[in-house]
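User: Hi! Is it possible to get a structure for several chains at once, not just one? Here's what I have:
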Amino acid sequence: MTLKATGLSAVRLGRTILHPTSLEIEPRGRIGLVGVSGSGKSTLGHVLVDDLKAQGASVAHVPQSPAEALDPLRSMAFHWREAEVAVGLVPGAADQAGLFQALRIEGGDLRKRPWGWSRGMQQRFVMAMALIGSPDLIVLDEPTSALDPVVAAATMELLSTFLDDKETSMILITHDLGLAARWVDRLMVMDAGRLVEQGRTADILERPQTRSAKALSAHRNWLALPC
Ligand SMILES: Nc1ncnc2c1ncn2[C@@H]1O[C@H](COP(=O)(O)OP(=O)(O)OP(=O)(O)O)[C@@H](O)[C@H]1O
Ligand SMILES: [Mg+2]
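Assistant: Yes, the chains can be modeled jointly so their relative placement is included. Here is the combined structure:
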């Protein structure tokens, strides 16, 4: 099912931080949402997730910081049960072992609270929670920001392999074009609360049209990074 959202916008403290934006996401689509810090990527991610959920789509959101998704006073087991119930499963019904293995967090102690896990493990735990129930779309906001480059690359590899068997589409929010270049087919470039350019990843990287896309793709040292 192609997901469509139209006229998404956001105003905070009287300032428009997201100008009316429409987008379509194909099944199995791999889209990168890129732009400099403060360009509105996370805002668009939040507004998009809310809009699609209101339409009845099953959408999972991995927020920029694990702290947005994890309550410091609750155990990881509690979070896991909540995530299961949220998608209509009875507690214990999700394939926890499979997801944990896919994201290499088998060693994590579920009795602990978030601070008993490293931030990188927390981030992958939040990804695993998001994948319970195979959503139509997963929105990942800077999913590897707490990970070192080697673990970041491995995590994206694991996630991608996991998604290969599913219909789930992915929006990868990042300012890291290296990550985007490797993992997405289509790029959407944001600048000052507007979607200013979109197209095939290779086209935008090779022939950027707008000032923002040119600036982002000018930093080509990302090609040397492992992720
Ligand atoms: N709740 C809020 N109240 C006021 N301003 C906000 C709020 N949330 C975001 N903004 C502003 O909106 C703009 C876009 O923020 P947003 O977090 O979406 O950017 P971003 O592209 O995700 O940045 P980053 O790469 O740093 O995560 C920024 O100027 C930010 O300061
Ligand atoms: Mg952000």
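DSSP finds nine helices and eight strands in the chain. Residues 186 and 200 are 4 Å apart (CA to CA).

User: Great, thank you!
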